[in-house]
Structure formats: C-alpha cells, structure tokens
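Action item from last week, closing it out:
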Amino acid sequence: MKNNFIVVNFFRVTDPYSGGSEVSFNFFENIPSKNKQLFQFSEIKKKHKNVQSIYINNSKISKILNIYKLSNKIKKFCENKKKITIIIEGASWVGYSFLLYKFLKKDLSRAKFIYHSQNIEYFLRKYRSNFLITAITKFFEKYIAKNFDIFTCGSEIEKKKLKKLYNVNAKILYHGVRLPKNILTLKPIKKKYNYIFFCGNINYFPNYDALEILVKIIMPKLIKHKSNLKLIVTGNKLIPFKEKFLVNVGFVSKTFFFKYLKGASLFVNPIKINFGVQTKTLHALITGKTIISTNQGLKGIKINSKIKNVYVANHNSGFSKQILKNINSRKINIDARNYYSKIYTLDKVVLDFFKKNKLI
C-alpha cells in the first residue's frame, strides 16, 4: 500500500528566502515518493506543483483564524486515501501545530503524525518571550512530543535535551542542504578586493546580532590591517548599516549564493546565540570553504577535527585574529567537501530517515 505524504507549513516556503523556509521546502522536495503534497500559508499568489496554498496576511492572528480552513483542505485531500503520513513543520510557533493536530486527529485517526522540529522551541521562547508565552509554548511542545508518532530533532545534543525536558525519545533527522547540480563547475565571483562572506535573514535576531558584531566590532579591526577588505552579505533586501566596507547584495538565487560563497576568502559566522543547526554553516562545509565561527555557529554539527578548514573563536578579538590569520584561504578544501557532503547532503539525509523509520 502506497503511503501518501502531506507536509504542512504555517508560512510560505516555496521560493525559499530564509534558512527555515529552505530546510522545509527542500525537505519536501526530497521526500522519496511521488505521492506527496505540501500545504502552506502564503502571502504571494503563485502556483507550484504539488503545493496547495491558503493566501493570508502574514500575521499571527491570520494564521490562527485560518488553521481550521487549512485542516479542512488537508482532510479533503485525504479522502479515499488509506495510508497517510502528515508531517508538520516546526519552523513556526508550536501552538499552530497543536491546533491543527486537534482539528485533524479525530477525522484522520489512522494517519501517522510526524513533527519535523528545527529547534527546541521552548528554549527560544524562554530567551525572547514573556513568562506566559514561554509556559504555553512548553505545554504545547510537550503535548506534541508525547502524542505525535514521531518527534524529530536535528542533533544528538537536542535528542538528549528533549529526553531531559519532556522524557521523549526523539528521532534524529539531521539538517541537510541541497546543492546545485553544477556546484563543482560553478565559477566563483571574484572582485578587485578580498571579501569575507556572511549570510542570514536578520529578522531572526541571532543573525542580526551576528551581523552587528561583524559591522561594529570585527570589521573595523580588520580594515586597520587589510584596508581593501570587504564584508559581503546576502539574505536581506535592506540592512540598517551603511559602512563603506559593507556590501549588501540582497536576496540572490542559490546559484549566485554559491558563487559568492566560493569566491570569498572566508565564510564567517560570529553568532552568539543559537537554537538549532545553522544551514549557512552546512552550506559552507559542503562547499569546502574555510570557516571562522563561534561554537554556537557549529552547534549540533559533526565537525571532523582532522580536516583543517574550521577555526573556532568565541570572543570578538580572537575572531578578528583568526580571520587575519586565515584570510588567504579562498581555495576549496576537497577533503572537507567530500567528508561533509556524505553526511549533510539532503537527499541522502531524508532517504536514510525514511528508510530507518519504515516510512517507505
């Protein structure tokens, strides 16, 4: 009997524009089955193959008011289908997932429910939200962890934390990335100046903080020694910094993203707080770039200490020194590229997970 896979997102993931949307959409694309459908809320009226969208304003109230409508759409799609697996993406507030599950479970009691977590949300809310939202989030997340057939996490570290927090045995679904087919022959973007490269949507506050550190603290130190050095940034249409050494190229296609990455002297990630595996770091690892990062930027990733392309600096002064020390490391590290590709290429990650959990 063929399994029918339904993936649900509470924000637009088609035409990915952030780490979260990229993880969710590429996961869907790599599900090893033709019997799959993606449901999403979207603010853009655009059709995609195997995608059903409910067009709403991108606000919390709009999402809550339309979850019942979303559930009806899913139930209609499930009519006359005997084997169903519903995968709810955990890149949005867990309360949406809780409500949707309540609307679906009664009528789709035979369906298998999987929660695809991108982080442990309780820790994120604990850091940024008030006591009430944090407590509600913990209740919802625990309920889902206890009641879904499979609750995933992105690393061994998160698995241990979830066991301690909710007493559940989460299944590890490693984060992975999807590379262009021509990645090996893709020509790097070269400039008259050397540049270091950072990416990330600054609406996610750890990315904003990391970019601010680069612009206000690290780059001013670097240009005292390397006056022609630039910082190139992608992932945002506008950023609130105007320094001369800063080049914001905005949202770019994946092809141009990898061209900039390959052409950079270094990939840098001075992130101080992190609640899940950083997709940007995986991109750099699989490409074989030399990386300067904090421990937080490498959180949950299996770093091979025998391959010398990753350098850790947790303090701003040390971070600047590591950049200066390794500034001429533009060349791709073949050993790093080969090693990390075997672990974090998304099609392999998804296939292994589906086979291990007998979903196909």
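Closing note: The longest strand covers residues 36-42.
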